[in-house]
Amino acid sequence: MILGIDLDGCVDEAPEFFRTLTMAWPGDVLVITFRDDRAKAEAVLAEHRIRYTDVVLVRSFDTKADVIAERGVSVYVDDQPEMLKNVSSDVAVMLFRNEGNFDFGDRRWKLSEHTGKLL
Description:
By secondary structure, the chain is α/β, with parallel strands linked by helices. The chain has five helices and seven strands, in the order E-H-H-E-H-E-H-E-H-E-E-E.
């Protein structure tokens, strides 16, 4: 099983959680991040002692879903619903809550019309 994780809004928000998760994960760990500087991304991962197999830099939302499919990621964690909506249904996804996607004052998720559907 391959674990995919986002860097910004996930690892940097809860480094102890992601350190524990990546150290305990039995397979490869792929960091898929919307950045353009690999050295800085790897420096953040080293700073937080995150175990990873590879870092993939992407430049669009859809590219994350493409990488997840191409690399055979089975579980993916991201903090942006936009990044998750095009991920195949055979991939388990986790939306990581933070102040960017959750209003802690009124205890509701922040979603756009493109990522949320009110029931």
